[in-house]
Specification:
Blueprint: E1 25-29, E2 37-39, E3 46-48, E4 59-68, E5 75-84, E6 99-105, E7 113-116, H1 126-129, E8 131-137, E9 145-147, E10 153-156, E11 167-176, E12 186-196, E13 204-205, E14 210-214, E15 222-225, E16 228-229, E17 239-245, E18 252-254, E19 260-263, E20 274-283, E21 290-300, E22 308-309, E23 327-330, E24 333-334, E25 346-348, E26 357-359, E27 365-368, E28 384-386, E29 407-408, E30 412-418, E31 426-429, E32 432-433, E33 444-447, E34 455-457, E35 463-466, E36 477-485, E37 494-503, E38 511-512, E39 516-522, E40 530-533, E41 536-537, E42 547-553, E43 560-562, E44 568-571, E45 582-583, E46 592-598, E47 605-615, E48 623-624, E49 642-645, E50 648-649, E51 661-665, E52 672-674, E53 680-683, E54 698-701
Parallel strand pairs: 6-12, 14-21, 30-37, 39-47
Antiparallel strand pairs: 1-4, 2-3, 4-5, 7-10, 8-11, 9-10, 11-12, 13-16, 15-19, 17-20, 18-19, 20-21, 22-24, 23-27, 25-28, 26-27, 29-32, 31-35, 33-36, 34-35, 36-37, 38-41, 40-44, 42-46, 43-44, 45-47, 46-47, 48-50, 49-53, 51-54, 52-53
Organism: Turnix velox (Little buttonquail)
GO biological process, one term: heart morphogenesis
GO molecular function, one term: calcium ion binding
Amino acid sequence: ENCKPAQVLNFLKWPENHLTANRKLHFSIAKEDDVYFEIDSSTGDLFLSKELDYETASHFLLQIILKDYNNNPPQNNTVFLSIDVEDQNDHSPYFQDDFIVIGIEENVPVGTLVYTFNAKDGDGTFLNSKIQYSLEMSTMGENPFLIHPSYGTLTTALPLDREITRSVTLTVSAADQARNLTDRRFDSLAVKIVVLDINDNSPSFTSVPLSYVMEDVEVGFLAHHLIATDPDEGRNGEVTYHILSGNENKAFALDKITGLLTTSQLLDREIQDCYNLTVMALDDGSPALSTTQLLTIIVLDVNDETPVFLKQLYETAVHENQDPGEFVLKVEAVDRDAGLNSLLRYEILPGTGYENFKINPDSGELLTTASLDRETQDVFSIKGSPSRCSTAQLYLSVLDENDHSPLFAKTQYQISVREDLKEGSAILDLSASDKDDGLSGEVTYSLIDDTFGAFAIDSVTGSIVTTKALDRETKSQYTFRAVASDCSNHLPRSTTVMTVFLQDVNDNVPKFKQSYYKASVWEGQSPKTDIMQVFATDVDSGLNGEIEYSITSGNENGEFLIDSARGILATNTVLDHENTSSYREVAASHHLVLLASDRGTPSLNSTATVLITVLDVNDNPPEFSRSEYHIHVKESIPVGSHVTEVSANDYDAGSNAEITYAIISGNDRGHFHLDGKTGSVDLMKALDYEDTMKFTLIIQAT
């Protein structure tokens, strides 16, 4: 089916047999059969008149009519010719879509059918339309999917886990099975497979299982923050918190959403110094999964207990006249606090005769400091007390007035960013300070100038982010003001000027002003003759926008050179019109493909085609096809008869190749006439063999 029109079907030439030898035959095709074929009426050679398509018609039956003019009247014969069209692989397989997205749950077993691909091929025969499928993964690693080469069924080859691989991008190819490997055609389809989440992960606590809290904290005090994570997605990964046990006296309350554990009543370490709570983190999947943790909360002591003596009244006797330092008794007291708060110090309160005694502040042992005299005083009433001190601190708070404006650290900022930043990228974190307190010192940020939709500022953090893709070639610099304000309506706001310079990225290809150029040059010009200048532009800056020119193809013989900086195309050798008339795309060696490359990294480039016509100079004389013509004629041929025709060729072109013929000798009596344009020789006078047997004509071509 790939035979071109006007091509002779040599294998259908009529044989030289007894039917055709030495006979005058006329061949024709019946009118209803001559759509795709023609036949030479004299030779019987069969031609294609229209290109064939196997898929439209694969068989033809032609009715050939032979008319024999040697019979009188002429005799007609009919021959039927059967022609089978051989199929060529001229149709590529194709998919209905260029890109599809498929979802599959992560818990499906290996071998699960994911999708069935169905590519079509318009060819007519089996191998040319038989499709074989193949699969490629866009990333490195083991492909978790398989495709059946014949049926196009995509199945799982490995277990899937969304928490490891959320999606896989595949390229599915369909190729026909033409017998010749080089004739095979294919098409491809991009497939994104999204692994759908199921609730296959339990929450996991990341917060520590131990917390400390002072016993004197107020109700509602934050005692601990439970944190658990669940790698599942959506509701499967949403975690709530619950107390399962250990909180029977309702000492704590747990926010099930935030995981904040707070006190719900006053604590007393002396009653209970430790709580062991069993807490649970529960996700919202179906069925829900959970995990538990034993959370230990230790209540820390506060010095809130007063020491108490073991006896309210101590009675004892001591001998008089003993030396000082005599042991009298030991008093004891206890304190329910713990640690340092339970360490006691003893002292004697001032009273009558107290100067005669001393007490060890640590042990509570009472000793005499003087020799006692019963006659002088016989009874001593002494009061002792372990110390329980408390201190108070006075905190004087000055109530705030909003009397300060926010201030930026700098009045202007200049930064440079790459133009290929992704949308949403932070370029700078602005910070303004306000000496006021509370709401009066809370700063909000805003932009008051047009950023052409390129930037926005977080009103709370002051972070400036991009809001669209940047392009230095569209706009290379942005200047705008950022404002810091507090809640005041009468104080001035603080402003800073932002200047953002975009750094160039080599993202623009050099472009020729034309994709196709035509030029001409006279043959025979000396080397280094300028032919033309081409121009390419690159809107990038610096090295990214500097262009170098070169010739990539069509100059295999080195006939041309190009100035790499200026793009001037010139000859490198002396050109000859007769050897090469044009450098164009039809022949690979006869056209020039120019390359314009920038100096960026990586370098970008584009091409343009130049058709160069070598103009002719009249540097070739005409040449006869033969140096001598020998013609034999009968003396009886009538005047006006055509005798012969001479022909000369000139390798030049145009008017330089137009030839004029003339007889310059041998026709003195005017027997012959030569057509100066066609070279046709005709008889002008009757010939007489007995008068002249031979004429020698000298013919000139100019």
